[in-house]
Amino acid sequence: MSTDEISYGTRLTQLARERGDVADLTFVTVEGAEVEVTYGELERRANQIARLLAGQVGPGGVVAIVLPNSVEHVLTTLATWKLGGTVMPLRADLPRWELDKLLELAEPAAVVADEQIGEKGVSLDRLRNSTDQPSEPLPDRISECTQLVASSGSTGTPKLIVAPARGVLAGDAQAGLLNTTGDQVTLVVSPLYHVNGFAFAAPRLLEGSRVVLMERFDAARAVELIERHQVTYTVMVPTMLQRIAQLPDISAGRLRSLERVVYGGATIPDWVVDRWIELIPPERFMFAYGSSERLAMCAMTGADWLTHRGATGRPMDADLKILGPDGRELPTGEVGDVYFKPHEGRPLFRYLGHEMPAPTEDGYRTVGDVGFVDADGFLTILDRRHDMIVTGGANVFPAEVEAALSEHDGLVDQVVVGVEDAEWGHRVHAIVQPRDPSSAPDAVELRAHCKDRLAAYKVPKSFELVDALPRTAAGKINRTRLAEERRPR
Length: 489
Known about the structure:
Blueprint: H1 8-19, E1 23-28, E2 34-38, H2 39-53, E3 62-66, H3 71-82, E4 86-89, H4 96-106, E5 110-113, E6 121-123, H5 124-128, E7 148-151, E8 159-162, H6 173-177, E9 185-188, H7 195-198, H8 202-206, E10 210-214, H9 219-229, E11 233-236, H10 238-245, E12 260-263, H11 270-279, E13 285-289, E14 298-301, H12 302-305, E15 314-315, E16 318-323, E17 336-342, E18 350-352, E19 369-373, E20 379-384, E21 389-391, E22 394-396, H13 398-406, E23 411-421, E24 425-434, H14 443-451, E25 462-465, H15 479-485
C-alpha cells in the first residue's frame, strides 16, 4: 500500500474517532420514518459484522448482499471492505434461477440475505445479532476490487462486471469528474444494487459527507427530503427526474439547496432537461454518460445543453470514435457505434459469464451504444444497438419514440419495442401506462400526438395500455423480454 493511500476501513475508523457522535447516515423507510446512524455506530457495527464474516471472508473474497436498501446493506458493505473483500450487491427480488446463476459465477465466500441461502448464507437475523462480537478495529486491508456489478443485459443472460476500482480514499478518478468530494449532503434514491445507488452511499460516507438513503424512490418524498435535510447532491435516472418534474407543487424554491444534480442512465427526453434547468441553475445540472463497465465517462452541464441540445457530454477520461459497420471511423455528425479507448494507466474491466467485446486494432472498445459526435466533440447517444427496431427497412431508436410519448400529459411511463410483423418485419409497438386509467388516451389520440413529433415511419403502429410497466427500482426495463412476450405464436 502506498504511503499516501488510506484504505476504506482505516478511513471509517478515523472518522469515528474525529466525529463519532455526528449523525452521518439517515435511512428513510417507505413509510417515511427516519433512522439516524452516527459515525461511531457505523464503525462499531462494521467491525462486529466484519468479525462475524471473517471466518468465511478473507482478502479478495466476495460477499453477495441480497438485501433491499437498508442500514444493514451499508454496514455489510463497510464490513466487507474492512476485510479487504469485494461486494456484490444484488436485487433482493431476483428470480431464484437468476440469483443461483450469479452466485455460481461469482463463487462468493458469503451470501447475506433476509434468510439463509445455502451453506455460505448469513441471514439478516444473524447479522443483527452480531452485537456480541468485538468492536475494535481490524488489521488494515485494502479491497483490490470494491464491487462486482451484476447485469442481466438485454437478453436476460446473467453476467458479472469486474469494475476497476480499489478501496482507497480518493482512488476513483471518475468520481472526481462528478465533483463528489467535499462535505456535502447526498440523497441516494436509487437501489444499492445499481451503480447510481452503490457508488454514492458508502463511498460518500467515507468522504465525510452525510448521506440520506431512501428505501425506495418516491418523487414527492424525495423533494421533501431535499428541503428538510438541505440536500446538496443527488444522482437520478430519467424516470425519477421526470416524475419530480411532473409534481404539481414543484418549484425552484423547494430545490434551492441543490448544488449538483447528476443525470445518468438511459437517454432523457429534452423536455425533462428543459424543466430541470428551470428549477435549478443550468450549471448545477450535470449529464454523466458512462456504463457499469466504467469504460469511459462523458460529462457536461445544463449550460452546455443550451448550445448542444440532445448531447450527453464530452469524454473526460478516454478517447472517442464513431465507427461504421465496416469498422471505419465516421465523420462528424454521422451515426454509428460508439467506441472508447481509456486513457493510459486506467485499468480495464472484465466480464464473468460473458465474452469480452473485441477491441479494434488500435485498442478501442464498445458497450453497444449508437450515437454521433458534433463539431465541438460532444457525444449524442441515440440508443443501444440491440434495442434498435428495423421496420420496413428503416431504423427506429425506441428512446426517441419514448421521449415523444413522455410529453403526453395523460401518460406517466412508456416503453417502445419491436414486435415481429408479417408486413413490416418488425412493427413499432408502444406499451404505455396512463396517469388516470379511467380516462386513458386511446390509440387514435396517441398516434396523433406522435405524428406531431416524429417522422411517419417512427410513429407506433400499435399501442398497449398497462397498469404499470415492469421497471426495476433502478428504472431499467428489459425491452427484449417485453418484445418476446408479444411475439406472434
